[in-house]
Design goal:
Blueprint (H helix, E strand, L loop, with lengths): L7 H10 L7 E4 L4 E3 L5 E3 L1 E4 L10 E7 L2 E6 L3 E3 L8 H7 L4 E3 L8 E9 L2 E11 L4 E4 L3 E3 L4 E10 L5 E6 L2 E8 L2 E3 L5 E9 L9 E7 L7 E6 L1 E3 L2
Parallel strand pairs: 2-10, 12-20
Antiparallel strand pairs: 1-4, 3-8, 5-6, 5-9, 6-7, 9-10, 11-13, 13-17, 14-15, 14-18, 16-17, 18-19
């Protein structure tokens, strides 16, 4: 009787990791996978260098996020992530061990490893998933009355996840922040946040450059919107 691959994980994995294979290969996405919250994401993993159809008696597939096991195929598919799926027929016929993650959220962010044993060889591939949407930035009216308590607004819209910080500058100098803005969830599953700068305009503020700057995980560098104050009533 041929050995079940299921029994190889605990007892032989250490030894198998040291083995090299000129045949077994695992191919995953070469770039980061970006996804919107609530969408379904395919984490590709394709096994090559084995006979087709694949002999499941000799196969074990394990998906991990970091060090946490997300799903396995050892005689049958099992998952610790609700809703995750793998197409058994495609696995057998095509060597397709792609993992489907429905309704992804920011908690699904991370580096995933598709680890494969096909007796006696091992191979693995890694792919990174980012569930995020960068913000759009706009500002409100900039015409203010001289000497009258006033405010200007900055709106960050359509972003995910909801953590965002705002800094206000005048002529390049920080006048408020950085501070965490209160984000509100929209019906589309994204977030909006508004920040307000309060001031009493003086004559010297006319044509001053006001900047609203935000930081969010979906952008590589701070996003900044500059505008000129117009002080009326002089």
């Amino acid at each position: 009787m041929k050995p079940k691959a299921a029994f190889l994980w605990p007892s032989f994995l250490l030894c198998l990791r040291t083995a090299t294979s000129a045949v077994l290969r695992v191919t995953v996405s070469p770039s980061v996978i970006h996804a919107n919250p609530g969408s379904a994401v395919m984490l590709p993993c394709h096994i090559s260098g084995t006979p087709k159809p694949i002999d499941l008696e000799n196969l074990a597939v394990k998906w991990l996020k970091g060090s946490n096991v997300i799903a396995t195929y050892e005689d049958k598919f099992e998952t610790n992530r609700p809703g995750a799926q793998m197409a058994t027929e495609k696995l057998v016929q095509e060597g397709d061990a792609t993992l489907l993650l429905p309704r992804v959220q920011d908690t699904d962010d991370g580096v995933y490893t598709c680890s494969v044993i096909y007796v006696p060889d091992t191979a693995e591939g890694k792919v990174e998933l980012k569930v995020e949407v960068p913000p759009q930035l706009t500002h409100g009216p900039t015409k203010l009355q001289l000497g009258k308590p006033s405010s200007v607004t900055c709106l960050a819209s359509g972003f995910y996840p909801g953590n965002i910080s705002v800094t206000w500058l005048q002529d390049g100098k920080i006048v408020k922040g950085p501070e965490q803005a209160i984000a509100h969830l929209t019906s589309e599953g994204l977030f909006n946040a508004e920040s307000v700068l309060e001031l009493i305009p003086q004559i010297v503020d006319d044509n001053a450059t006001i900047s609203c700057q935000i930081n969010h995980k979906a952008i590589k560098a701070p996003l900044r919107e500059d505008f000129q104050l117009q002080v009326q009533g002089m």
